[in-house]
Design a protein that fits this description.
This protein is of the alpha+beta class and 505 residues long. Helices cover 40% and strands 20% of the residues. The strands form 8 sheets. Strands 18-19-17-16-22-23-24 form a 7-stranded mixed beta sheet, sandwiched between helices. Helix 8 packs across helix 15, helix 12 crosses helix 13 and helix 13 crosses helix 14. The chain is globular and about 65 Å long.
């Protein structure tokens, strides 16, 4: 019997599924879309039942199209978006849509609870700032605004643990997603019940905690009928998408760092000792016994998607004629502009900003316009702005004691040779690019592979699966111009943040 592994990725706009062989080769893929709902200003929520429907449809279509048999799948791994707060009753029924990672409805609660309990006290337990986007404030929001939902909630689940529940019937919490709850002891990896009481959260809402690679159960008969898998197939607890992407990029040793090039941007540094900084994000790694110190920014591949949607009509019209996508044409246009974009600087704060400034009022800015600037300047400056936000996070991480030597890039942006080189030049770091498009689901299946014993260790799994495609060395000739633009980048936000706050009121 062939031994394949299935990965399930619960993203913000869609789920992705993929079947891998033991060497990390992709044999089949599938996907399923679902909406984000924005019922009010600052709200962003999703229906987890729509996640499950999309997962079932994607798996069935993928298996049917590829001819892969359900009995050939030896294990299942799941990764998911961060900071969900899914209220389910004893029967596993979802009681309300979950606010997702970009939801800020609980901002007032954060200010009140932060004063009452003490932000320093909270940070000492969980190693993360008490911000509205995290899971904890969302639970408190249910308590105050949806008391009937809160009263009937049996457990609060995360995105990957909800899919694990739908597959196995087991309600669990794994280590890497614990960082969303401020009653999670980041040093010990356990619930801090004293902090639960101080925050006013019922202890019974918190599921038992498992390592990310732990097998939490097998596919039930009901789930098998719904998604086309074989009953009894082992399911690993799964992990945070950033943690799985870090693992899938081959980051398993301290100091190794994943550079995120998906919808959002940022980095994840593997560390083997506790290092927290309120400007950054700290979670457990999917690889056992380690943490990842993260910088999560809203400015990533989504910036270029927005640029293409708004300004790419001409390039789209020439797609067939040239045999090149509009994004490839954008790269070619930007490549004609000199490094530094002739002094044009972009702040990529397109939906507020997360680390390291944590400012929901921050806005995107193009600075340095004059009649000499072209479309190519806009595109290249946008790429450079995202790279500058990466450097900002890396500099803060260095201050926290996490030194980085090499970045391992993943996500759609890593397919752009120009953009990846810009990031190398701006940060002064060597960038290695493994199989970037599948790193997150690969990390999820590595968890399943380690959990069922297909791999003896995470190191062995990475050696077998994380194939390096190319390497980018920083060009020292560009350092001076990028250092100058970085100085402008920092000053722009510093001088504009008060105006941004005033205009948001």
């Amino acid at each position: 019997m062939k031994q394949y592994l299935l990965g399930i990725d619960i993203g913000t706009s869609a789920c992705k599924t993929a079947v891998f062989d033991e060497d990390g080769h992709v044999l089949a893929t599938g996907s399923g879309d679902y909406p984000v709902y924005y019922p009010r200003q600052g709200w962003a929520e999703q229906n987890p039942e729509e996640w499950w429907a999309a997962v079932c449809g994607a798996i069935k279509a993928m298996l049917e199209k590829s001819g892969i048999r359900a009995e050939d799948i030896a294990g299942i791994g799941i990764d998911g978006q961060s900071w969900s707060a899914i209220p389910v009753d004893k029967n596993g029924e979802v009681l309300a849509n979950t606010p997702i990672w970009m939801d800020t409805r609980a901002a007032d609660i954060c200010e009140e609870v932060g004063r009452k309990v003490g932000e320093d006290r909270i940070f000492q337990v969980c190693g993360n700032p008490f911000k509205a986007t995290y899971t904890t404030p969302k639970i408190l929001w249910y308590q105050r605004n949806l008391p009937e939902v809160y009263e009937h909630t049996y457990k609060i689940l995360q995105s990957n643990s909800y899919i694990a529940y739908k597959l196995t019937g087991e309600m669990t919490q794994e280590l890497s997603q614990g960082y969303g709850l401020h009653c999670f002891d980041m040093r010990k990896g356990v619930w801090d019940l004293d902090m639960c009481r101080e925050l006013g959260i019922r202890e019974d809402l918190l599921p038992d905690i498992y390592p990310s690679h732990a097998i939490v159960g097998g596919v039930t008969e009901k789930a098998a009928r719904e998604c086309g898998l074989l009953p009894g197939t082992p399911v690993a607890a799964g992990a945070l998408d950033a943690a799985c992407g870090t693992l899938g990029a081959g980051v398993v040793h301290p100091g190794e760092t994943q550079e995120q090039g998906g919808q959002a941007g940022g980095m994840s540094i593997c560390i083997d000792e506790y290092k927290a900084d309120p400007r950054l994000i700290l979670s457990y790694h999917a690889a056992a016994g380690q943490w990842i110190l993260q910088g999560g920014t809203v400015g990533g591949g989504g910036v270029m998607r927005w640029m293409e949607q708004q300004f790419g009509d001409y390039e789209r019209s020439r797609k067939e004629e040239l045999g090149k996508s509009s994004l490839i044409q954008f790269n070619e246009i930007a490549e004609k502009v000199a490094p530094g974009s002739d002094g044009m600087v972009f702040l990529p704060y397109m939906s507020g900003e997360r680390s390291p400034i944590w400012d929901p009022n921050a806005k995107g800015v193009f600075y340095g316009l004059d009649f000499s600037k072209t479309k190519g300047h806009f595109i290249r400056a946008a790429m450079e702005g995202v790279a500058l936000s990466l450097k900002h996070n890396l500099d803060v991480a260095k201050e926290a004691g996490a030194e980085v030597s090499v970045l391992r890039a993943m996500g759609g942006s890593a397919n752009s040779l120009l953009w990846t080189q810009i990031k190398a030049d701006v940060t002064g770091k060597k960038i290695i690019v493994p199989s970037s498009d599948t790193a997150t689901t690969l990390g999820a299946v590595i968890l399943a592979g380690v959990g069922i014993g297909m791999y003896k260790s995470f190191e062995e799994a990475v050696e077998k699966t994380a194939e390096i495609k190319r390497t980018h060395e920083p060009d020292p000739k560009n350092r001076e111009v990028y250092d100058r633009n970085y100085e402008t980048y920092l000053k722009l936000y510093d001088h504009l943040k008060d105006i941004m706050a005033e205009r948001s009121r």
